[in-house]
Design brief:
107 residues; 4 helices; Rossmann fold; alpha/beta; globular
Length: 107
């Protein structure tokens, strides 16, 4: 089974990769913030299961929060829309009310 992990360099992503590498039936693909949308599209097409763990908790600018936490999730969902038999595990450890208020002002 091919598994894609977004946020692979984060605490949860790194530990998940360590656990999954112990099992031979999994091939692991990583998506990190330096990756491009084209790379993400390719990884999604190869993945059977996606752990979407990417996120920003303390961005320097509010737009960074939106780009990573909202836009990336929308991009993944859009790329998955026409895929068959893809499984997505979406995980968000924390979501701050402050960001919701400020995001409304940005939009």
């Amino acid at each position: 089974m091919n598994i894609l992990i977004t946020g692979a360099n984060g605490f949860i992503g790194k530990n998940l990769i360590l656990q999954l590498k112990e099992r031979k039936e999994f091939k692991i693909f990583s998506y990190v913030k330096e990756s491009t949308e084209e790379e993400l599209s390719q990884l999604i097409s190869e993945a059977d299961f996606i752990f979407h763990l990417a996120g920003v908790n303390r961005p320097k600018e509010i737009l960074e929060f939106k780009k990573v936490n909202t836009d990336l999730t929308e991009c993944i969902c859009s790329l998955l829309k026409n895929k068959i038999k893809k499984r997505l595990f979406f995980f968000r450890l924390q979501f701050r009310r402050h960001w919701i208020t400020n995001m409304v002002k940005v939009n």
